[in-house]
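For the sake of clarity, the format in which proteins appear in this thesis is described at this point. The record quoted next illustrates the convention:

___
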Amino acid sequence: MRRETWSFYLFAGVLLLANLACSLPSFGGGSSVEPTPTPPGDSITFTVPAYTVGLQPGDSVPGTRLQYVGRNGDAFDVVIDGLPAVKRTGDSFIWDGILAPGVFANYNLRLATVIFGEMRVAGPVKLTILNPTPVERTDNTPLTAQMAFNNAVISYYVPVGYGIPGTTAVYQGLRDGSGGQQAEFSGLTNYPYIAAGDSLIWQGYLRDNFIVAYNLRALSVGEEGVRFAGTAELFILP
């Protein structure tokens, strides 16, 4: 066999052994190092399953290139991403694009009905926030939002040492108290202990122009992780 071929196989074998060593679990005693927040990912996505808006002739779905022009017999004239179309009740009304800097949206809407000249459109909306950096908002000053979305559906399982996505809260482990076991969280300005069935309210910036307000409840609390479910309100700032 040629010398270059042997060198290739030798290099491949060393690389394989190195990868295996990195992936093997560690054994032995527990570590005294406290868990740290999971590094923020490149994006976080929220789903609003039942977004709805009413449009008068000439109106657009806020922030999008979906425009209602007017009635056309038993159909409707619309403009989608600059292109005219004729739609009927129940037809799709879909658009993808940038709502604001760092905020990408997917609108999967359908024409619902017309009431007193107003065309209703409804369907799920997904918002993807690029490069989120959560910062807790502790003041109660009123928000001036350019766009707002209600009832984004949230379901998170948070392992020990990991953060609740889109927040500063990190699960540090169980704490035994007189009232039973509680999950201890770092990164919160308020009371850091949560028992099964407790609520968790958190509001903060993911970007300078984007705020999320979580209304969560701990469905279960365990040594390995905490399971949350609830909703979120999403605010895009001017």
About this structure: The chain has a mean pLDDT of 86. The first strand starts at residue 43 and ends at 55. The first helix runs from residue 3 to 23. The chain has one helix and 15 strands.
